[in-house]
Design a protein that fits this description.
Shape: globular
CATH architecture: 3-Layer(aba) Sandwich
Number of helices: 9
CATH class: Alpha Beta
Largest sheet: 6 strands, mixed
Radius of gyration: 19 Å
CATH superfamily: P-loop containing nucleotide triphosphate hydrolases
Length: about 290
């Protein structure tokens, strides 16, 4: 197995894990509200500007959070960095590799957890994870050992390891999705609302594992979340996205200091409301999340 770290450009410039410069993305909808996949007739369809001139940098080893209301473009941005969709403007690099021109290399450097996890539903967690491990070149014995360790770490009962995924709750399936991402020890982990649907104890277990990956495995993490406490507790810096634009980017303490003379008296939810003028909608990025 080729280590993902062998693809990092070893110089000071690329101690930046992620560089995003002037990214823009537009989607077109049919009159029925469906995404238009083909180029023809776009002039007569509804145009939705999902991202406007997005620019930021993430340092290696940083946990970087993105907060935003429904439709703000969080999932669209994650999908661009995951090489799943191509931006209309701007460029992005993962450890010095262009996400469009060097997409195959970028895919070896990242792993992604989406709020909408996909599996072979008839197979068990172990079978699904073994399939994923083979795609990354992990051997059978090594993969099985890692799988059992991560599933135990996430609090799954051993009796569930061999049960079909279709019989598991939404929260349990999300834990398996998280285990799949952690399995390969990626150097950049893209977490798109990873704790959605989890009970409070499971949330804490996942959050603890995120910190462990950063501290013990040299992982850089980009996290989108609707949980303000989660963002404040985990993230070194937070970008607030509204209507496809970054309206603020700073540490949690500095963001709170922007809206009150005594930051200890305000919460990240207060910050979010003050900077966007909106309540946080927990339904996700709707149509654009599936672009």
């Amino acid at each position: 197995m080729v280590s993902s770290r062998s693809y990092i450009h070893h110089n000071e410039e690329h101690e930046e894990a992620v560089v995003v410069e002037h990214i823009g993305k537009t989607f077109y909808l049919t009159r029925e509200g469906h995404l238009l996949k083909r180029l023809r007739n776009r002039a007569h369809q509804e145009r939705i500007r999902a991202l406007h001139d997005i620019t930021f940098r993430i340092q290696r080893g940083e946990i970087f959070g993105i907060l935003g209301p429904n439709g703000s473009g969080k999932s669209t941005l994650i999908r661009i960095l995951s090489t799943l969709i191509i931006p209309d403007e701007g460029r992005a690099w993962i450890f010095g590799h262009d996400v469009v021109r060097e997409d195959m290399i970028v895919r070896r450097l990242i792993n992604r957890v989406s709020v909408e996890a996909s599996f072979f539903k008839k197979l068990s967690p172990v079978e699904n994870l073994m399939y994923g491990a083979r795609l990354y070149g992990l051997s059978g014995p090594e993969a099985r050992q890692r799988i059992h360790r991560i599933l135990r770490r996430l609090g799954l009962r051993e009796t569930s390891y061999t049960q079909p995924m279709e019989n598991m709750s939404r929260g349990m399936q999300q834990k398996v999705a998280i285990a799949r991402a952690f399995l390969t020890s990626p150097i950049l982990l893209l977490l798109d609302e990873p704790t959605t649907g989890l009970d409070p104890r499971s949330k804490r277990e996942v959050q603890s594992l995120i910190l462990e990956l950063r501290d013990e495995h040299d992982a850089t993490i980009l996290l989108t979340t609707h949980d303000m406490v989660e963002a404040e507790n985990l993230c070194d810096r937070i970008a607030i996205l509204d209507e496809g634009r970054i309206v603020a980017l700073d540490t949690p303490d500095n963001l709170k200091a922007r809206i009150a003379p005594y930051p200890e008296e305000v919460t990240m939810e207060d910050v979010f409301m003050a900077l966007t003028g909106k309540a946080l909608d927990t339904t996700g990025d709707a149509i654009l999340a599936h672009a």
